[in-house]
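One thing: mind reviewing this one?
=====
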Amino acid sequence: MRLEQIYPTVRTFETVVADVKEQQGYWVALEKSYFYPESGGQPADRGTLNGIEVLDVQLEEGIVWHRLDSPLLGKTVQGEVDDAVRTDHAAQHTAQHVISAILQDEFQVKTVSFRTGSEESTLDLATDQWDEKFQNRLEERLRQVIVAGLVITATEYEEAAALTLPLRKTPQVTGQIRVVQIGELDYSACGGIHLESTSELELILFTGQEKVRGNIRLTYVAKDRAFRLLTTERRVLSETARFLSAKKDQIRDVVDELKQDQIRLNRQVSQAEDAHVQTVLKHLLNGPEQILVLQHEQEDIRFSEKVGKALMEAGRTALVWNEVAKKLVMYSTGRVHLGQFTKTHVKQFNGRGGGSETNAQVLFVTHEDALAFVEALKEELHT
């Protein structure tokens, strides 16, 4: 990659067109470009060429190609790199350097990979263990590094000279090697974009963690992204506290109480449903019908399923249409394999579903389609 793509301060420049192509859009190569192409986990810059929006930037065989919203007219080009996007990407990448350096220094945990996303960035770490102690120490060190305002520089070295430095990992390139140094905290061979001081990071927030392919993946945001997230979450917290008529530090206790109330209410509803099922069952079993077709207009689908299962356990076949869910639930003692019948016939009645030998469910667009399907199934059951 040519050095002009990674100059930290250039945002406007003048150049000429070197080449053009059409390949799933309009692409132009320039004699020189300060746009950073997508590379090494970092997304491409955005901006304009002669006022035309740059939608993507890719590096192919040493040539920086810019995909444009419309064709570029003329030979001379005025380029403008979007400062907000460049600074944001630089902040997320700088945060990655700092986090990775601290993790390796403090915990001997190496970084496997990283990715700058449109909303959050991720770090995959070569460890399957993570706890609150690690997290707290990492956040403490990050605050110290940001306050310290460590100077960040990028210097080109001959390969032999670069290898004498305390590089965090072995360079993947040979010849001229660009080394990014963050005070004495970190030396990394890197062709990416960075801030000029750790103080410019301002704030780093961790938003989640998960285990991925045996590694720990940390999710984070830095600088403006972190402040936007903090503002949003504080607003949500305040609104939630107001809605619950509680103080902010009481929200967790109030929510725990509500969850317990919900558990109790669900238990009471379930008990009431079971009693209602038994009442309905006594009425339905009074008759001699072996195949019972029922229509539930307002009942919860769970009630329909309980009634159908209870009828099957009593030796009857139950075909229950639930209008709320637009679903037909079917239970039988095995005279017809319901799952196979459904798989064979459901499409001709504009439905979708499946099941086992004694239990099947089908979603229909209309009640009429469900009734037609039921008639076909009843005919099969009677043969």
